[in-house]
Design brief:
Two copies of one chain form a homodimer.
Chain A: H1 4-22, H2 31-41, H3 48-59, H4 68-86, E1 95-96, E2 99-100, H5 102-106, H6 108-132, H7 136-149, H8 154-163, H9 171-196, H10 201-228, H11 231-234, H12 240-243, H13 249-276, H14 281-290
Antiparallel strand pairs in A: 1-2
Helix pairs in contact in A: 1-4, 2-6, 3-4, 3-9, 4-6, 4-7, 4-9, 7-9, 8-9, 9-10, 10-13, 13-14
Amino acid sequence: MMDLKQEMQKRCNDIEKALENALPKQTEFPPVIFDAMRYSLLAGGKRLRPMLLLAACEAVGGRKEDAVDFACALEMIHTYSLIHDDLPAMDNDDYRRGRLTSHKVYGEAMAILAGDGLLHHAMETMAIACEKNPSAQTTGAMRAIAHGAGIFGMLTGQVVDVFFEGQPLAQETLDFIHLHKTAAMIRGALEAGAILGGADEKTVQTFALAGEKIGVAFQILDDILDVTATTEELGKPVHSDEKNQKTTYVTLYGIEKSREIAAGLSAEAVKIWKQQGEGCAFLLALTEYLTDRKF
Amino acid sequence: MMDLKQEMQKRCNDIEKALENALPKQTEFPPVIFDAMRYSLLAGGKRLRPMLLLAACEAVGGRKEDAVDFACALEMIHTYSLIHDDLPAMDNDDYRRGRLTSHKVYGEAMAILAGDGLLHHAMETMAIACEKNPSAQTTGAMRAIAHGAGIFGMLTGQVVDVFFEGQPLAQETLDFIHLHKTAAMIRGALEAGAILGGADEKTVQTFALAGEKIGVAFQILDDILDVTATTEELGKPVHSDEKNQKTTYVTLYGIEKSREIAAGLSAEAVKIWKQQGEGCAFLLALTEYLTDRKF
């Protein structure tokens, strides 16, 4: 049995190093935008999405080196989405990952542009990787990530979230938001990783499905932790859903039932990893950890 | 001698049709984001960038059909940049192309998301085109467009523009802004078109250089028209540079000298098209038109 925490830390360190090199240094002109992009991208965090992408690639027999550009791009897209979500016109949050949000440090205009810049640079990073090696794998991975992030994925989840702000949600709407805003990118991470590792179409779809289950379970856990954890544990304000009168799994079902639903989704993903065999040992351990975390 | 206006209108109509099909219809859920994206993308305009991309592809012997997805993506990126530039935190403009700007119609949050959505969908559209046909041409074109739009191109031009807002600019800074904010995307359009058409590396670089000259000349003309044209002619408020105390070519050199500089750049591009031969006849006529337009 591996020491999961230690293994996660090691992989997280590798991702931090790759991200550090994936953006231009702050000496470029004009410094402010590169500063702002680095401030948010290098603010720590679990690096869950790139970790899942790289693990999926290795699980199907691929090489991590072929996937690292795509993993970095995925984290850039995730970070851009956080910067824009935090904007005054959106959630108007002052803290993220234990530090001031981008617009509190750089102002609203630069925060919008820093977010845009990260999305641009994710696109450019993937395009360069594809041009270096134009193949079904590289272009397929780029498509999977773009799809998970885009107007049929994460972006639309955020739109619906903003659209219904302050209104009680039906369960179908909440499920739509969770599936799109959170799960689509995690699905995209596992799908892209499996594609880059050279998996066949059936395996790719199986990984994508596991990603969807993990993504929804992860978001339900987030809803629960907003009620049960402390600000120090999460690095962001708790009870924000209550403050914003948000419908969540907790308000619909209560904490215990929500835990059960998350555990059920997690079990479905775990079953997939067990069927896929030994190569998925890390993905299995990570799945159990992510869907049963305390913060 | 072709009838340029008629030829431009015909090509513009083709691009309109392609753009109309490039976005999901407004019946998708949630309708508001698809409405907002279509509102700005289908608001008319010269369609200069996609027109240049398609013309470059055909000029080197390529097929328009292989380039149309990239042309649409380019126009989506251009439109996203206009939506975000117009935001209250940026230029705070109420009108664009003769109609209310996105945030005046849909509110600030949805305008940010509509811009994001267009950038996402440009990335996804190009990724799908690359996956359908993974080649040096498709991936190279995507890289050229991503580079022209990104943190070494258009985005950084906008950052510097915002950064120095309200301050007088040195000529070097103004040149940096013009080269990045406007010319980089036009350069990217011609570069991507030539790549998609199968041109050799030397020809691609020549087309890119012509794009840079046209782009800067085009922006200088824009500065001039802001002083000499009417709101009705431009479809946006004139004298906005004066109102915002912006340094432009006109404030640095006056109208006549600015016209001379633009004409000189245009002549350099025209010389390139003449050297490239008959295939570039439309590009040549378009270049002369764009850098000597009255509005």
